[in-house]
Amino acid sequence: MKSWTSFDKFVAFSVVLLLLYSIALLVNAHLAGENIAHWVWGRHQNQFSWYSRPLFLIPACYYAYRRKLWLIVGFMALLLCSLFWFAAPENVPEHVSGYLEWEKQLFFSNNSIVPLISLLVAVVLFLIGLFSAIWYRSYWLGLVLINIGTLAKIVISVALGNEFGTSAVIPSLSSLAIINFVAFMAWRLFNAKQES
């Protein structure tokens, strides 16, 4: 279980390449005189990043199952970097800009850092719980955690984000549907192997 296959090495090489690409994007933006925080925020408005980011949990969970800590860390770094992979959209839909403005006000423009610290702690605890569940072979617990975590994000967004909170619903539910489908297929494959 601990050995590295050729595929693992290929995946690790790909992760490193994507991280280098991310660093190159940041360096290029800096050399172009961009304010990095504004540059990242502008690119974060591209909804491709909203849809793609949660999908990094799938390979990270696979490597939690394989107990490859560095590949889990690598995929979580890619999840973070994917915030700025896609170009800033020329026209940002009002519901997207409104939702992101609500996020900015809540987490970055607030006089208190409590909301931001609470978010970071909640995300870290969620990820530790998810990967630990899979690492220690509690697959159903991992699946329950990812479903509860996503649904909690939707509820908080809708409850606190006013009319813009619904912007997070479709990206979150579509990602959750893909993750649950992959989990279902993995379960069927596992059962088929057990029966043969």
TrEMBL record:
It comes from the Bacteria. Keywords: Membrane, Transmembrane, Transmembrane helix. The chain crosses the membrane at residues 70-88, 108-131, 138-156, 168-190. The keyword Transmembrane helix applies. This is Uncharacterized protein. It comes from Arenicella xantha.
